TrEMBL record:
Keywords: Hydrolase, Periplasm, Protease, Serine protease, Signal
InterPro entries, per database record: AB_hydrolase_fold (IPR029058), Pept_S9_AS (IPR002471), Pept_S9A_N (IPR023302), Peptidase_S9_cat (IPR001375), Peptidase_S9A (IPR002470), Prolyl_oligopep/macrocyclase (IPR051167)
Record's catalysed reaction(s): Hydrolysis of Pro-|-Xaa >> Ala-|-Xaa in oligopeptides
Function of the molecule: Cleaves peptide bonds on the C-terminal side of prolyl residues within peptides that are up to approximately 30 amino acids long. Has an absolute requirement for an X-Pro bond in the trans configuration immediately preceding the Pro-Y scissible bond.
EC annotation from Swiss-Prot or TrEMBL: 3.4.21.26
Location(s), subcellular: Periplasm
Organism: Christiangramia forsetii (strain DSM 17595 / CGMCC 1.15422 / KT0803)
Tagged with keyword Hydrolase: yes
Biological processes per GO annotation: proteolysis
GO cellular component: cytosol; periplasmic space
Ranges for domain Peptidase S9A N-terminal: 32-433
Protein name from the UniProt record: prolyl oligopeptidase
Keyword Transit peptide: no
Amino acid sequence: MKKILTMVIAAGILIACNDDDKKTEATALNYPETKKVDTITDYFGTKVKDPYRWLEDDRSEETENWVEAENKVTFNYLDNIPYRDKLKKRLTKLWDYEKLSAPFTEGDYIYFFKNDGLQNQSVMYRKKGEDGDAEIFLDPNKFSEDGTTSLGGLSFSKDGTKFAYAISEGGSDWRKVIVMNAENNEILGDTIKDVKFSGMSWKGNDGFYYSSYDKPDGSELSAKTDQHKLYYHKLGTAQSEDKVIFGESADQKHRYVGGGVTEDDRYLTISARNSTSGGKLFLMDLTKKNPELVTILDNEDTDTYVLKNEGSKLFIVTNLDAPNKRVVSVDASNPTPDNWEDFIPETENVLSPSTGGGYFFAEYMVDAISKVKQYDAQGKMIREVELPGIGSAGGFGAKEEEEVLYYSFTNYVTPGTIYKYDIKEGTSEVYNKPNIDFNPENYESKQVFYNSKDGTKVPMIITYKKGTELNGKNPTILYGYGGFNISLTPGFSTAMSVWLEQGGVYAVPNLRGGGEYGKKWHDAGTKLKKQNVFDDFIAAAEYLIENNYTSSDYLAIRGGSNGGLLVGATMTQRPDLMKVALPAVGVMDMLRYHTFTAGAGWAYDYGTAEDNKEMFNYLFEYSPVHNVKEGVEYPATMVTTGDHDDRVVPAHSFKFAAELQEKHAGNEPVLIRIETKAGHGAGKPTSMIIDEYADIFGFTLYNMGFETLPSEANKKVKG
């Protein structure tokens, strides 16, 4: 029987009373009782204690009671922030504007999404032609009473008469796929259950391909899943009859398998990966009765996929011998790399290509800013697309026969605007501009470059109200990610506009580990180079302080998922640097992350503690859960997570919060806010998002010492 240690943790903090009281008084913040279990794992001769491993059991009554107790402490604290309701009201008012998606054509209809303002989920509409009357096609708000069941993907059959859509319940990555007759909205008896990490790709009107895992033993929200399979579902048949196309045999075992049918229904392309970077690529000719699996790439050294085809000619996007990506062409009869020819060669900027109307659109990132070039079918550049300004453009895609496409443009002070683009003429016009109670003219964004610890130059965009005095006293949120080849490009956030209204500064650096400068930039923040990411983030904070945008007393750091790891590592390495830390759905236990759900697929970025002693030591050195030190004063911290997060399981956040509450020496609060019936973030209802941001901004400002909102009065120090 393992020895169980139990302890009660208490710390004194200051909580402000209501504004009328004109004073603050101290109140004891008693954290919930969190037992400690004598669990030890031996890694290459190093014995590592894991006293809170019992919190990994998301199905246990003990864990459920702990979650309830922690939330009670957290929300009691948040209830005492005097301006929390004001923040919520302002967020609600600002959020309440009509939001439209870019339209797309399927069959005889034009489809689009619209949110009237505060609807929990956006509604899918359609109309016959531009001048037709819009009607509701699918309303996800009716999936559940509380808005926590969301639309998780959709796909139309070739002629647009059949429609498959996935739903996510409580934010889980496990989905149900429902099939509908698009002509009369009748649900067909083809519901597919237990689908995960999958799109739906139709073969004509007969059926579609999808991917999933066998349901794991144990908890479906945390048990490991590592053999993904590609299935074909034929309409009118039971799911039990669905044929496995790829992934059933031992030699085809991969963690992530996906399949997509080319627009002309001729080819099925199959990707097979064991990590989030690098994968194999295969092809099947669907015009043949018994198509064979043709290998394009049989290794996982590159990120490569088929963009489109013209007959038997394939156009492939790859970073093979091109870290910033290129487009190559090859005949499907012999599609291996030795036969590839450059179609759009690699440049010094990262390429993200798309197609539409018979043309190719090459979007390039130039210091994280969009530039778009248009090429014809022969690979000749026709024009550089004139964008509305400096920011992020996306959506340059359409079907081959389309004459127009719709793209979006945004930056940190410009709400996302949709433009209609004439593909042949190259002209743009505004299609939809949101009517929001926010004036971009009052704010500015500027890009700076700073040097990281090793001298690497890193870009950062800083946004704030015009006329802001650089006196070191501006409340500032530094947001980062730095991983998985993901690029942080400028984009408007309704929530962050409320922060800017309060005189807040919002800074976003493009850390190594991201994709802003291609594969080399990504690789420079992976495995034994992961510390570069934390150093880049720390250097960003130091730049903001040295240049008087803020100071340590007014700095908050924030990030989610891999960005939650970033915040956890930064605050444990440099607790003196910031006043507030806001790690969200973070990967906090770097020794065990790969044992949950599909976590082992992140090994390209992180490596695992089982790889070798060097990798274990490196991970152990920065793993947030294992680097909370006894007697250290940590910043005011609010960890956020969701109880249905099966991407980064909430145990990461649970264990980190428990370690902090046990060992933290200061008087700053250490809270964990656990959203119930919520997952990693996708599909979260509007009401839940607004509540969360009101709590985040309120917690941040209050712990920076603001008794009233900065926009209403001068700062007063709590005391």
